[in-house]
Amino acid sequence: MAKKILVVDDNPDIIIAVKNGLESISSDYEVVGAESGMKCLEMLRTDNPDLVLLDIMMPEMSGWETFDKIKGNKKSGNIPVIFLTARTDNVAKKAGGFLGDDYIEKPFKIDELKNRIEHVLRK
Description:
Elements: E1 3-8, H1 12-25, E2 29-34, H2 37-46, E3 51-54, H3 63-71, E4 81-85, H4 90-99, E5 102-105, H5 110-122
Parallel strand pairs: 1-2, 1-3, 3-4, 4-5
Helix pairs in contact: 1-5, 2-3
């Protein structure tokens, strides 16, 4: 059964790139997208993906705020979260690496992303 990956990014091109990239190199994944933190939280009310790829820099609700709400909810609190972001500063790297299950900088290579997702899902 395919693992469901929820990509949360305000840039629809990133969602499409992750979806097309992962689904083209492996039938092990079904990728769905949310273009905001609010949309992510709405989706999590009715669906539990196996993993969330979360951008940090988003309007209205940042990835940090979205992360707090995901982890603060009994239903979604155990879902692994990988930060997938263009933020490359040390504060973001340390916080993202500490809070999340992994921290990946954009741009990324799809095979590296797949390997890191698989590593987190094996934990």
